[in-house]
Amino acid sequence: MYNPRFEKEAFKKDVTNNIKTLFRKELHEANLQELYQAVSYAVKEAIIDDWIETQKKIDKEDPKIVYYMSMEFLMGRALGNNLINMTAYKEVKEALDELGIDLNMVEDQEPDPALGNGGLGRLAACFLDSLATLGYAAYGCGIRYRYGMFKQKIKDGYQVEKPDNWLKYGNPFELRRPEYAKEIRFGGNIRVEYDDTTGKTLFKQENYESVLAVPYDYPIVGYGNGQVNTLRIWDAEPIVDFQLESFERGDYHKAVEQQNLAKTIVEVLYPNDNHYAGKELRLKQQYFFVSASLQLAVDKYMKSHDDIHKLYEKATFQMNDTHPTVAVAELMRILLDDYQLEWNEAWEITTKACAYTNHTIMAEALEKWPIDLFSRLLPRVYQIIQEIDRRFLIKVREMYPGNEEKVKKMAILRDGQVKMAHLAIVAGYSVNGVARLHTEILKKRELRDFYEMMPEKFNNKTNGITQRRFLMHGNPLLADWVTEKLGTKDWITDLSLMSGLKKYAEDDVARAEFMEIKFKNKERLAKYILEHNGIEVDPRSIFDVQVKRLHEYKRQLLNILHVMYLYNQIKQHPEKSFYPRTFIFGAKASAGYVRAKEIIKLINSVAEVVNNDRSINGKLKVVFIEDYRVSNAEMIFAAADVSEQISTASKEASGTGNMKFMLNGAPTLGTMDGANVEIVEEVGRENAFIFGLSSDEVMNYEKHGGYDPYEIYNNDPDVRRVVDQLVDGTYADGDTERYRDLYNCLLKSTPYDKADMYFILKDFRSYADAQEQVEKAYRNKDGWAKMALLNTACCGKFSSDRTIQEYVDDIWKL
Ligand SMILES: *Cc1c(COP(=O)(O)O)cnc(C)c1O
Fold first, then answer.
1. 70 and 40 co-located in one domain
2. Which of 548, 559, 637, 663 has the most ligand 1 atoms within 8 A of CB, as the residue to mutate?
3. Residue positions of the PTM N6-(pyridoxal phosphate)lysine (predicted)?
4. pLDDT tens column, 582-614
5. Which domain holds residue 57?
């Protein structure tokens, strides 16, 4: 599409000028970082008119606005993505070429804004892209962490965490908005006052600490439509007036306290993925951004409307997991205390404005705040939750008279804890899971009591990903090929059109082109691996890839045990033909997750042994890519032959990595878990490699206390061998203790955990068989090309555009 807003010569002049005004330099004197800044400011200038126009349009048309509330936005780099969505990428590349500047090198200067852990944060980012592209008015609401996800270094095979100072050089795309700052209060006590004139009871917070929440806006450019939405993330600053006042009163302590609170609150993103740690600072972060976002949203509404009772007609708050769930009580507080509404009025508005997305069924991920901590930090909000709970339990008792078991199971406040998921379900008008299987498990098991009481709230929204970033930007060769074959670019905003590629699965020439593109992308990744790992990998080998957060349930351990098994096979049967394979891993472990870090070390130890064994002729290579993040992910997906999606069935709510691989033509090797089920449904079972226990089987074993891994260990000599190799020093320079914990967790029960609770040994044989099928299938070049191409052709369902349209139609009703 030709972009009428883009003028090449003017753009070149802008860049040259920016170098001058920002750095007092001539273009040829500028370094790459300076060029990145100059180019980005020029791009921002091109965005800004549309940004202003979008705001004007929203003010004029007064649509319902979606507030997507999320602790995490894993945005990835902005420059390239903005250019793509402005439909100016190629023109800017040319313009810079003419100035002797390589756009790719400039893009590489941008730090990844890593304000998220993994799938949940990336989903939020994909949703913002789709909302803008579909032309809906939406804000992302979150936190401007000073330090995002840590940078991962591998030292001696171990993960080492380094701070991610992503704002070091400033961010050209952000805009500070001090005029929208809000005060946020913590702690203290609530004084109850009776107002004689109005007859109202007033609740006054006293002796609190407070910080100023200051928003920073980031443009979210829709594809080719001029829509520019806003990601609004909050920074914390000390409240200056208070500080002066305190100093004058000689209250040095108070002033320093305010300083410290402001500094710590947005200091760093918690690096836990699918795990609840219960830290006070985390609850402060949650309330901080939720309160600020809600206050501003209510202000915005009241600026152009006079009836607060209709707030839900113009604003809807989607809570990305339970992390922002304090929103329902905070909105009640604003309506009750600031707007003096009656309880029932406030409750009607809140329960028509808030909706909840569930992301996990794993017990260790459920947020349950200790009541003493919660009530001390948020005394007024806690009072409100008590009242919500009290009224809810009256309903439960009405519906299930005499059934105190139900009350126990469903209460929001119980066992000294605030159960955030229960609060979200009770106060939300919608509860959605993120893949069909996940939603069914929620309804049948985890949230069954709630589903029985309020079935109308429950719905499924299978996750999706944006093809703009994960195909156009990450894999331009394939993107161009798709456009050529379909004869249109419309797939960029309508991924269902990809089905038009199916016919090319039968076309020799098209298949060859498709595989040639895959090969080029593998060469690009091989170059990256050589530069970053010093390991030479053969782009003709099978690139078998598992990239995602490191977690026991995702079973990277199963993958590496299988690599150990293959290595044993090759050594034992050097005469047997073996198709060369490269196993590629990328994963960050939460800094405090000891076992996950042991698995990283094991992967690197196996890599060390296998990669340096000349006797196997390079048939097997293992690569651990350091610092897995959105920018290198884009390149990795494009180069993958095999997509490893091997979570213990029932544990992965959806997965979105699986969809990015599929889009890029990599068949899934996976369990029937999360969205894998729907991927197989779209592409056909014959175009995937499915193995392992079903979710029903897993849940059945769990109900009966697990299974006995010794049954397998004792009867399968291949399994026994690799498990024993964890403690015979093979991969630990003779140290028999280094991997003892991994050995134990596979075989021994503890008072806390069942033996092999993720069914690794149970699924091992079936996984190894599936891997054998992969090798066999890959040897058949035509067959493989067809399968890979069909994966790309059948991925239409998994665009986040489709997901967002479903949220719009079924939940938000925009
Ligand atoms: C998509 C994505 C994820 C999520 O991957 P899963 O395999 O679904 O867990 C995590 N991190 C990054 C950088 C991603 O792009």
1. no
2. 548
3. 660
4. 999 999 999 999 999 999 999 999 999 999 999
5. 1-61+87-111
Work out the pLDDT band at 11, boundaries 50, 70, 90: very high
Distance CA 508, CA 814 (A): 46
Same domain, 531 and 411: no
Mean pLDDT of 437-456: 97
- Report how far ligand 1's centroid is from the alpha carbon of 260 (Å): 34
Question: Residue 212: what are its φ and ψ, rounded to 5°?
Answer: -100, 125
Are 365 and 411 within one domain? yes
The rounded distance, in Å, linking the Cα atoms of 94 and 82 is: 16
> What distance in Å separates the CA atoms of residue 265 and residue 245, rounded to the nearest whole number?
22
679 CA from centroid of ligand 1 (Å): 16
Catalytic residue numbers read: 359, 548-549, 554, 656, 660
Q: What pLDDT, on a 0 to 100 scale, did the predictor assign at position 1?
A: 38
pLDDT confidence bin for 242, thresholds 50/70/90: low
pLDDT band at 252 (very low <50, low <70, confident <90, very high): confident
Same structural domain, 710 and 754:
yes
Residue 163 lies in a domain: yes
How would DSSP label each residue in 757-800? TT-HHHHHHHHHHHHHHHHHHHHSHHHHHHHHHHHHHT-GGGBH
**CA 184 – CA 209 distance, rounded (Å):** 8
What CA–CA distance (Å, rounded) separates 685 from 773?
A: 13
How buried is residue 734: exposed, middle or buried, by Cβ count under 10 Å (0-12/13-18/19+)?
Answer: exposed
Q: Is there a single domain that holds both residue 492 and residue 457? A: no
pTM score, two decimals?
0.98
Which amino acid residue places its CA nearest to atom 15 of ligand 1? 630
- Do 725 and 581 fall within a single domain? yes
- Say if 587 falls within a structural domain: yes
User: Tens digit of pLDDT for each residue in 392-419?
Assistant: 999 999 999 999 999 999 999 999 999 9
Instruction: Tell me: pLDDT of 449 over 70.
Output: yes
Q: Check whether residue 157 and residue 287 sit in a common domain.
A: yes
Q: How many domains does the structure of the chain reveal? A: 3
| Whether residue 670 sits in one domain with residue 602 | yes
190 in a structural domain = no
Terminal C-alpha separation, the chain: 28
Specify if 261 maps to a domain.
no
pLDDT digits (tens, 9 = 90+) for 299-355: 999 999 999 999 999 999 999 999 999 999 999 999 999 999 999 999 999 999 999
